[in-house]
Amino acid sequence: MSGSTIVVLTALDVEYDAVREKLRNPRLHRHQQGTRFEVGRIEGGRCRIALGLVGKGNQSAAVLAERAIHEFSPTALLFVGVAGALHSHIALGDVVVATHVYAFHGGTSEDDGFKSRPRVWEVSHSADQIARHVDRESAWTGNGRAKHRRPKVHFGPIAAGEVVLNSTVSAHADWIRRHYNDALAIEMEGAGVAQAAHLNRSLPVVVIRGVSDRADGTKETTDRARWQPRAVANAAAFTAALAESLTTDEANHRRPDTTGTTGSQQMGDTVRNIAKDNARVGVQAGHVHGGVHLATDKAAQADPSAALADLTARLEQARDAGVIDEDTHRAARAELDDAREALHATPRNTGAVTLALKKVRGLVADVAALAAEVANVLGLVRNLS
After folding, report:
1. Would you tell me which CATH number, out of the four given (3.90.110.10, 2.60.40.2890, 3.40.50.1580, 3.50.30.10), belongs to the domain 5-254?
2. Largest CB tally within 10 Å, which of 40, 132, 339, 351?
3. Which intervals hold domain Nucleoside phosphorylase (predicted)?
């Protein structure tokens, strides 16, 4: 699939549900190996999210992160969940955003003891900068729950292993303190996700954790107090704001530079204007250098049904790329379905086809390329009369 998509992964159902609540009309997306994702847009925003559940542990997180990256070609990968705090200044419900992820279980066992061989992944500079800006703006905390303390966001290393730490005096806790004493929180999936992202052209990855316990033997108490859903709700709120900012940054990065242009957007070196059927088109460009070539789509000329199918595919691509919103897509898709039924009816109802296409043209009028495509199909249908 294409378009500006951000993959969000979680390990637990409570984490998945917290993120899913942020999505508008999530749609099921089945991977060929059976993994199920849900794809939707952030409520009230433009960001397209592919949400997945990976289960506990770094290994499954790495495998399914790789699967999601290959399936969606995302602009960023976010992992959202709960974690245990490793420092007393971090309160329950606070959010920890990883600047580094430590995989702390690596090492070698020798006669004089266990020697650490840690691995570490650092968040990309741009993603870190955007996350800090989201925190400074503070708009993400506007969730209407004034009875709860406003959560703080902490930036620092996170330790990722394969065990749940629930003690301050165990050998495992002592190992973390001696070798990773700057880690703010401890969890079980971040290293796998970071490794998968690193192996895919260093895809930006951000690990966001809501603090639901203190890793000090009181986890059962904090779980009974329902700190997991409260903490992950805060993490999900920050994630939604971060995803929107990452999407906006990506769109601005791709937008052509219009500095110095007058009256129109700066255009690239090559401009293609395509005329189909009997339509004629002039050259729509700022400056023309070299020859002008006119091309036609013979397959679309020959078969209105094929042209309608092509238009439907282009509508899906526009929705996936964020060019049109979900409501516009839904309304236009319904009209295209009506047009297809009328086109294949016996006898063929070209009047109904034309009416449906005119409605689609009105819905996508702000997107010039789609509107032109609708006009092309309208021309083919009129020739059937």
Report:
1. 3.40.50.1580
2. 339
3. 5-242
